[in-house]
């Protein structure tokens, strides 16, 4: 076996299929996308003209919708990091404390939204929040809060917040799962030692659990940022970026430019900037959250 | 070293096997292709099997136009047992997007449903649809009404055939009006007044598919026609022969549109309602009116809807505007939907045969009319068994004194359509004034 791995030809043959797949599904599209981003075209196969950086200058300096979409994506990412994840950590700790049958039950319940198809989630929230027949507004009515009744997703003043809520809810289970797994890896002796030193309750969690979870948190923050930037399905299926661009997100905007507006070259310029933004976000979140993992 | 070469050889063998199986799969397709092109006599049951791929925007095959389309397909496959039709259907908006994706990858469809105007223009520029010879569709067999090719003709060449006469109307539920003592509006002021009365009673006045945005543009165009009495004004503005921001008729129409917004004419959830959601609201008796096109004639005969609704659904012409020059017989009509032959078809001859069959006046046109699904773009005979809704729709069309020929949105490039739609989206989300709406439309027309 050792010999096989010493042979360059064998190594090449083992690695080649993977490299080929990676090239065809990642590198080639990116190269093609870059090519199209410098052209003015309706779609592949239609007449196209080289227009230099025109798509990029339009995008960066004149397109307010692009910046709005980016802002919303960043807001979503921050929402994930500062709302969803602290709650997920809190629930993970509670779940860990619970123990027994209840722990198993709640673990399953919290993870349910992650198993449901995005289409179902989107349609479910559309129905729940519908101002005419939606259960949520009915609930407000019965609670005597009828004055709060509202087209939650259909009004530009509340659409974004509602959308953030839905997305945070839908992705909550994943965060919980990761933190819960991280918690299970922390040895009990750490807690015992801390208790002996006089730490308890909130302080114990803050000083012991959170630092020991930091490798998980680092990964989670990076993933959260990327998930936020890539957000597409739920938005597309509920508001399609509306009303009036209030829930416009990068991927939805990109999709509509490419397929509804037939500005294929322009859409490719968006996609290239999209890649740059994602790389930048990954780099930054890695940089900001880097800490020396505690060994135990 | 021996083991080494053995491993390498095994790997190569596996790779070669994989390659062979991939290649043989391609070969299978080639065989099909030759079967299609050499197949002369389609009525001969012994003829080689051909599978035609048809892409349609009618997912409901049990009622309305989907049923009509399915009936024609069934007729054809019965007469031509060697032809199998592989049908793919998606709802309106996903359909449009997937068709673009198919175009981009030059997918070998045989026949596809197309939307005339901007959408079809993109397909034409990509060379994805075939040019048709108009001479081949003259005469009794096809019986197309005059002027229906407008949205299917680019640079004097024909690229598809229209399947319907489309025009915007207001469907309304007579029972809801009667039960609440609201008069059926004949003027725009009365319409807004009716909206207020319904609102006071907690009933949604008018349902609209606001998420899809195009209905707003049609509504606006209806207003422009009623104000100016000029069918071509909107189309001229799209072509920049007129100016959205300075023409008085546009300013008045935009203000009237603002009144509809402020009077809450549309259902509360209108900005998130897609086609199906807006239709359900109306057909389930939750909204008094529905702003939609003539292609929904099938509602009156759709057995899955309540009998109560079917007996009470009626058609209203878009109301006149006080002081406007337009009459209620100036109709916002066009030919939007149709079919085209796909250039990359693997069975071009068989595809054309089915296409021609589909477009015969005694196939699609007759079936769609007889089933009460829509108003065809071809001459049709009244059978005497039409539903009340169909008769009303026919009266609207035959009584029309002028028609638009195209939706304003579809008269420009796809970019204009997208920007224009978004201008309306912004307007109805409450983010802009009538003046800003017109400025946005003007900008969209200039930058297309």
From TrEMBL, chain A:
What sequence ranges are listed for the domain ABC transmembrane type-1?
Answer: 70-285
Tell me which UniProt keywords the record has, alphabetically: Cell membrane, Membrane, Transmembrane, Transmembrane helix, Transport
Q: Does the keyword Transmembrane helix apply?
A: yes
Q: Which SUPFAM superfamilies match?
A: MetI-like
Q: Which InterPro entries does the record cross-reference, listed alphabetically?
A: MetI-like (IPR000515), MetI-like_sf (IPR035906), UgpAE/MalFG_permease (IPR050809)
Localization of this protein: Cell membrane
Annotated membrane topology is: Multi-pass membrane protein
Transmembrane spans: 12-38, 73-93, 105-126, 159-181, 210-229, 264-284
Taxonomic superkingdom = Bacteria
Task: Name the major location.
Answer: membrane
Q: What is this protein called?
A: ABC transporter permease subunit
Question: Per the UniProt entry, what species is this protein from, by scientific name?
Answer: Paenibacillus phytohabitans
From TrEMBL, chain B:
Asked whether the keyword Signal is assigned, the reply is yes
Q: Which domain of life is it from?
A: Bacteria
Q: Would you indicate the residue range of the signal peptide?
A: 1-25
**Sorted alphabetically, which keywords does the UniProt record give?**
Signal
Q: Which is an annotated Pfam family here?
A: SBP_bac_1
Q: Which InterPro entries match?
A: Bact_solute-bd_prot1, SBP
Q: PANTHER family recorded for this chain?
A: ARABINOSE-BINDING PROTEIN-RELATED (PTHR43649)
**Know the name of this protein?**
Extracellular solute-binding protein
Q: Which species? A: Paenibacillus phytohabitans
